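re: that chain from earlier
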Amino acid sequence: MKIENVYSSIANNIANAIDISWDKAELTVKRAAKDAINFKGGTTLNKEFSSFKFKLFDRRLLVKDFHALYDIVTEGNSNHWNKATFTLLPSGKFNIELDWDDKMAAELKSLSE
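^ sequence. v structure.
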């Protein structure tokens, strides 16, 4: 799968799940392991935030897409991330930030010991 297809699928999933007027949508993803992923986020309209109704998402596809994104960007054992923020505008323009959250990684490591 190409990264452009993954980005497009994520953007479409977000846009299709929004049932209100919006200026910006932001989805934050925490990926703790291959089998553990968490989503939160919502839309903003005139600086007023509304949480997503995740029942409107194709959650299986969203999980699949973010795991595929992880596999693509970490190919060659580089660019590891455990937190992603996908920002989408109604025009279809988007931005994605992939970060490594040391605090989250340390908490997960301590829980597994």
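The mean pLDDT is 92.
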